[in-house]
Structures are given as structure tokens and as C-alpha cells.
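User: C-alpha cells for this one?
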Amino acid sequence: MIPQTFIADLLNRVDIVDVVGRYVQLKKGGANFMGLCPFHSEKSPSFTVSPTKQFYHCFGCGAHGTSIGFMIEYSGMGFVDAVKELAQSVGMVVPEQDDKIPPAQRAQIQAQSLALTDAMTKAGDYYKLQLRSAPTAIAYLKGRGLTGEIAARFGLGYAPPGWDNLRSVFPDYEAVVLAESGLVIDKVDEDGNNRKRYDRFRERVMFPIRNTKGQVIAFGGRVLDHGEPKYLNSPETPLFSKGFELYGLFEARQAIRDAGYVLVTEGYMDVVALAQMGFPQAVATLGTACTPHHVQKLLRQTDTVIFSFDGDKAGRRAARRALEACLPHVSDNKTIKFLFLPTEHDPDSYVRAYGKEAFEQEIQEAMPLSQFLIREAMGEHDMGSPEGRARMQFDAKPLLQAMAPTALRLQIVHGLAQMTMTSPYEIEVLFELQKPTAPAKMAPARSQRTQPKGLELQIMRVLVAHPPLALEVDQAALDAFQHFGAEAAERLTQLVGAAQMLGEAGNFAAFAQHLKSQGDEFDPIIGEIVKEPETERNTERLVLRAAIRQVKNDALKQELSQLFASGLSSDQIGVRYRELTAMQDQLLREAQAELSNR
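Assistant:
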């Protein structure tokens, strides 16, 4: 049985707007979010999600509940599976049995959390109030182009000069909760005596850091002059872990959905300034390198993440750390890019210098993760020497090992193999990659197999001469190869896979070398191609398409001839007959279209 304390903690960690927003398009409507109910058909939205109550309710059908309830109702999963799904999304582990925390201790933990949240809320209100009567801070913010509306949206404030200003907010200035929340610092002498307490933040513009429910959990403070440190953040507390939190995410959630991507910057001011200038989908890490937890949280918000870094050395180092954090979470349905601005600019200054449209263009042209990874591995190595190519492979190895065996990883392997004059299979073996995707070997020796002839031989000749054409061979064609028989189908399938492994940059020479390394199976075909004049790829493409259409058509005819002896019912035969004849018609139309285009 899952402990109720864990359930309560889970519901406190997840945000129902995020949970529901993965499946329902939500729009802000007052204090709540609105959308079309997923549980009944409706044209006008009557489905509401409350971020403060962490509850959903449909005024049309009456459906309502928490994040757990939504997962159960929407996906049909059981209670335990729904809890596990949500727990995994926030990095929690579901206990297998009831916890052993005594009720009194449990109550103490809950009371501490409430006390910390209350202290941070009061401090945030105090700092906001102080900003109204701080002309130097107001002038600074106006100088950065910020309006009062944006300052209010992000809850900006000001910590005035003085060592114990928070004494006016908290009558019990010596309370333990003030130190636990990081609002004050206790300084003691070498003997641990003569403790002196003072405010952590002084003479700084204050940026409240909110969790996904909008609660203030920490602060970032920026000096107005050239003092050090330029930015001062709250320490790690029971409420705040900088490796998990992102500044501005609470404010940016809807904008991220609307824009279709999130822009990750390096600082608080970048986020606020970009929101002012028309890019409210920006967030920032909190004075630390990007972590896998940050990436996981971002990819739950959107399918596209774009990291923006300064073009200087520090920006490059930060980009490298972000790349490493992203690799475990790379998948084929997500897009991760890296935007590098000129050395003298950050996002704020770039937009001011060149305008919104220019920055949008930079975002559109951001470097894909695959390209950045290859560039990082290549570094300054001499790709004209064996040593340089080997060093590139050495530097790329840990990066590729961190990735799951996805199609994107295979594409990167192709690129790396081409640059280092090796084959994708050799890269995967050398790097000891988990679940290699490149085929390991070709078919058995020719002496043990029947010889190819007819259409099979024609297709093989085209693929050996022009291996990139294999990229056009679809699964339907591979299935139709069974018409040649199991042995020929296996041979063709392996040949197609080996040719596709070389990618678009493959050529006859490289492919012939690869085939020879696997045995003498294709020596006769290679020999014939070498003797003949080089054929034109587009011409051979038409030959290949015609041959594959013929194979598909022959396979369809064979199935049609066997259909009435298949033992299916009359209705089933009728359905399949129409399907097969429709596929034949489609093949005919494709052939006629190619003839008309010649």
C-alpha cells in the first residue's frame, strides 16, 4: 500500500496544469485554465483546471479530481500505475510499503514545509513593497527597458540597505525558519559563540523564484552597481534545489505552449527582458549548470528546447554542460538546439541592438544537437591525419555512450563514421554502444546460397552501384521481397540495411569495400559494375522504382490467387480483395505518373 504521506507529497510536487496540459490544450482564463473536456464531446470549453486548488472540474459532465484522478480517467491506468507515472515525472520513487515515520515526526515535517513557504511569501511581499520607494532600483529596471507591468508579472522587488530589515517583517527575528529558508545568515566566531544574525540580501533587485504552483521558494538578488557577487541566490533548502528548478517557468508555461518551444537562457534578467520584448517563452537555470533534471522538466513542457548561450568561452563551456545533460533524454520525437550569439551580446542586448525579428531568425537557425555534438568532438583536431581522426572518435565516445539507441544516434554515428573514414558498424563496436543499430555482418558465403536472378539481381545491381538509393526502399518493399523466397528476401534485406547504413553520402567504392570485407557474395556484381560505364543515379532510381513496383505487384497477384483458398469468411475475403486491388491501382498510378514526368 502506498503511504498517504507519499501521495500528499507527490500532489504537492506535481502541477496539475502541467499534467493536464500534456493532453488538453489549455488557455488562461482568469485565475484558472480552460479547455475542451476530454471526457465528453463539447464545442465550448467547460473544463477548468485550478493551479491554486490543484484540481480539475468540468461544468458540463461533472468530471473532477486531482492529477492522479486525471491520469486514471484519461489513460485508463490503475491507481498505482498513475502514481508511479506522476512520481517518475518529478524524480520521486514510490515506496513499496508503508513508511515507518512516526505520526508526530510526519506532522513536524509538514509543519516545517508550511512555515518555510509562509516565510518566503512574506519576504516576497516585503521586497515588492520596498521597490515602490526605491528610486535607484526603479531607475535601474527602467534603464533595462522594463515596465511596471513586467516587474509586477515577475514579482520583482528590492532589498534595501541595512543588516536586519526583515526584523520589521518577522517580529521573532531569531526564529529558526528564517535561517532554514536562507533569508538570514547566522555568523559565529571560531568557538561557535557570539552568533550574529543578518539579512542575506541587501541593496539588490530581488527576483522571486517560484515553483510550478506559483509559490515563492527562493530568491535571486542582483546588485545595482559593480559589487560582488553580481548575482546572489538563496542556498539549498527543503523547498529549493537549484538543480531541479528553472527561473521563469511558472510565468512562461502558457507562452511555451503557444510558441511551441522553450528558450533557455543564462540569467534572470535575460528572462525578464525577453518577456518585455516579446519572448515570454524564456526560462533560465539558477546560477548552476544545466542538469538532466532541468532537461527532463523542460521536455515535459514542450517538444522543442533551444538553449541560448553567449559566444564567449564561458558560454561555450555552459553549452557543453547542457549538451551532456541533454544526451540521456534525446529521443526521435524531441528537438534540442543550441543558439550561440556574438561574443559581445547576450539575448537581452542582442534584441535591443538588432530587433525582435533578427533574434527570431537566430532562433530559427539555431544549431541542432547532432551538429553541435559532432563539432564538439571534432574540436581543433586535424581531420587530415589518422591521429586527429582517432582523437575525434575518442572525444565522441562518451557522448554517444550517453545516448539511447535512437535513430538520431544512428544518424550521428553515420556522420562521425564518414568524417573519420570508418564504417558505422565499426564505430558502434569500437564505442561499445548499447544495442547497436548498424548490421553486424552480411549473409553467408555465396557458395551456400542460390544465385540471384531476374528482378532480384536487377535490384541488387542498382543498390550496389548507388547505395544511397536504398534510403528510398520502404518497409512495404522489404515485405514484398518475401515473394522471391526466404533466402533471397534475407539477402536483399541485409543489402538494403548495409547500404542505408552509409547514408546519403555513401558511394560505390565505400560500399564495395564494405561488401568485400564481409565475404565474396557480391564479387560478381561488383566486377560487372566496375567494367561498365558509370550510370546516372536518377536513371537508376527509375529502374529501381520500376523493379520494386513489379515485385510488389507480383506479391499482390500471388496473394490474390491464394485469397479464395485462405479459409477466410466471405466478408473477410471481400475486404481483403478490395484492399489488394486498391494497392494494385496505386502502383499503376505511380508508374503512369513517372512516365508522364519523363
